[in-house]
Design goal:
Distance between the termini of chain A: 61 Å
Number of helices of chain A: 13
Largest interface: A-B, 99 and 99 residues
Structural class of chain A: alpha/beta
Number of domains of chain A: 2
Helix content of chain A: 25-40%
Radius of gyration of chain A: 22 Å
Oligomer: homodimer
Strand content of chain A: 5-15%
Number of strands of chain A: 13
Order of helices and strands of chain A: EHHEHEHEHEEEHEEEHHHHEHEEHH
Largest sheet of chain A: 7 strands, mixed
CATH architecture of the largest domain in chain A: 3-Layer(aba) Sandwich
CATH superfamily of the largest domain in chain A: Type I PLP-dependent aspartate aminotransferase-like (Major domain)
Strand order of the largest sheet of chain A: 2-10-9-8-5-3-4
């Protein structure tokens, strides 16, 4: 007898962890739309519209702004594996788990990785990065914008110029900030950026929006290769090291996302619908309005947590606006609090990784969940959860302080 | 002013090409379900249920049956890049575009690829494959089951034994047949198999179900590596060449899909919901019933096309049951017929790739669209479309012949 299980019936949850967060209902609705063939003019029209929407989201004129069909780390790998030829130097500033991940992926792409490190909870001064650029002369500087493992956002505004001074490319993983904090790709001189849908864009994980400029397009274009079986007449195999992944080969993806529509993968129809709707919602709100909303929410969270007598984690002047790290007080079982929040209030919060596992809680308030009601409810539930677990905050103080920030914002 | 575009409104289409096809409405509904956190016990429960469903779909006892977060070719690359260490021999029988693709991907994974070729429209005799195994002594035989580019299905039932005789592993890309033709993984001795949702499983492209046995698990396990930033105490870096992709690293994915739940990517929530529902539907129908339905549909299509006086493509004794190749008659503009079908009837059919581009039409009838009404409607529309384009089939003959197959099935 086959074991078929019940129909899906996910329980109601308020997802206030580091992501995924609750998808916007409009995004869920978009995903339920009927499929189209990948070369249907309506569908290729949607592909082009998605490119135009992504350009606006990334505040860029970059023609090449499209989706990688995979989660956020698929976007990272597509950029790195297409840019890096074996043996090339890549500088990675590591201030958390996602800096470590960047090193891992770059290494697998054959890079000679130069990592510089700082304590988790801090960020890098531009001077320190420039010194390392001088010392290592890398082909690429690869950095994370918001590292959710530490809740810190690396300042990026000086890095584009530093990279140009040292003849290097600059790649930024903006998965955790995109749509919540400004990432002005052209103004900051970022050569390539990748993101994900499941944080401030209020979509499901599984599609990674990327953008890159002509400097990158030219570089990867020299490694262009067309698959056997679909090569046109007079095909020229090009020069440069073969990109070690077929799936993540940016020049092939450029052909697929151009008017030549040379077949590569079959675009993930429903995830494209989702991505298109995620970005439409952000642009409808207005980018600036979104950034302000996340900044005010961050202040409300900070005020609420402090009023509860809890200590914030890390260098608050560089805190990401969409996530807040809170030190777990001595004697409190952090995992039990996370469990109680889920079981009693259906609210998900998280801890972190590696050295911070069990040392901090992480509470997100981003995208669709970057709302006053979500923040206040979470703080109220947090207070009620902590008390029987051995930490008695002044009753009502957290919610009052957060509400006060909203009232005076 | 931002350019935000209209809300999604994909037009009604009957997708009778090589896939994607219309998703089952139940699958679309599943994708609109609310998200859960990736470590929420409800969600990890759904992950485990999905594994159990995939085992039944693949007719296997393999514990390792899970999803790669990407389209079908992501599944191919995950298997090949994790199995193949640089310089190892891989034998690929090439009888169409997806055989070529297998060579491409294997090459990028560092394999020494030995391709044997046969004309597009044919398949390989087991003897020919065994001869090549003797000559090249590959570590892996990698073959496509149904190559949609030619509409042929490679017989697989002898290959498992051949591989064991020659101490090689056997990997099969079953993207185009899974859920429509039988792929009894254990009975046929297939060591690893990958698929996609967008063909006979009636889902959207973007998630690739894979399965592999202990032979593969042991081999890739020797290449196991845990990411910096999440390594447990006493971590042992293992032996064997580092897998060149982080995203497609099977041992890491095994940790993520096991009770240790070691973080890797963030599982694509909505695509997992889709995959789970796709397989539930197939198992609810019954595997055998599904295979019979596709086989009868294939006979109806063959009878209909022949009654219209058109010629079928390739070796019909090895035709895939879910897709039919039709020679484009001399003097008929194949692309114009495809366009007219879409514009007048909202029915999508396709041509093929490379040497078959513009030489054949491909009409699919699979998964949700493997229905009598879809087949009869398509044949009626096809006849009406061909007439003004210079090919006059006997009026009504195609539909009558197909209906006769259904009535006597």
């Amino acid at each position: 007898m086959p074991e078929i299980f019940e129909a899906l019936d996910p329980p109601s949850r308020l997802l206030m962890g580091p992501g995924p967060i609750n998808a916007d209902p409009r995004v869920l609705r978009a995903m339920a739309m009927p499929l189209l063939g990948q070369f249907d003019p309506m569908f290729t029209g949607y592909m082009n519209e998605t490119m135009a929407l992504l350009r606006q989201l990334y505040q860029t004129e970059n023609h090449w702004s499209f989706l990688i069909n995979g989660t956020a780390r698929a976007g990272i790998e597509a950029v790195l594996t297409s840019i890096i030829s074996p043996g090339e130097g890549v500088l990675v500033p590591v201030a958390g788990r996602f800096g470590e991940l960047m090193c891992e992926i770059a290494e697998r792409c054959g890079a000679k990785v130069h990592a510089i490190e700082t304590d988790w909870g801090g960020v890098f001064e531009p001077d320190r990065i420039e010194d390392a650029m001088k010392r290592f002369k890398p082909r690429l500087l690869a950095t994370v914008h918001g590292d959710t493992s530490t809740t810190m956002a690396q300042p990026l505004d000086d890095l584009g110029e530093i990279c140009r001074r040292h003849d290097a490319l600059l790649y930024v993983d903006a998965t955790a900030t995109l749509g919540g904090m400004t990432v002005p790709v052209d103004d900051w001189g970022l050569d390539a950026v990748s993101g994900g849908l499941q944080k401030c864009l209020s979509g499901p994980p599984g599609s990674s929006p990327i953008t890159f400029n002509d400097r990158v397009a030219e570089l990867v274009g020299r490694r262009k290769h067309i698959e056997r079986g679909i090569r046109p007449d007079g095909y020229d195999p090009g020069e440069g090291a073969l990109i070690q992944s077929n799936y993540f080969d940016l020049p092939m993806l450029m052909d697929y996302w151009s008017e030549s529509r040379l077949n590569h993968h079959t675009e993930s129809t429903s995830m494209l619908y989702a991505a298109r709707e995620c970005v439409r919602i952000v642009l409808n709100d207005g980018l600036e309005e979104r950034f302000v909303r996340h900044e005010v929410t961050s202040r409300a969270m900070i005020a609420g947590v402090r009023a509860m007598g809890l200590e914030l984690f890390g260098d608050i002047s560089h805190k990401m606006h969409n996530i807040t790290g809170i030190m777990i007080p001595d004697g409190v079982d952090g995992d039990a609090v996370i469990r109680d929040m889920l079981q009693n209030f259906a609210i998900e919060i998280g801890t972190s990784f590696g050295p911070l596992k069990g040392r901090i809680w992480r509470i997100g308030a981003m995208g669709y969940n970057c709302r006053k009601d979500a923040v206040l409810t979470t703080l109220a539930a947090f207070e009620a959860t902590l008390r029987p677990r051995g930490y008695a905050a002044p009753p009502g103080a957290g919610v009052d302080a957060a509400l006060n920030v909203y009232n005076t914002a």
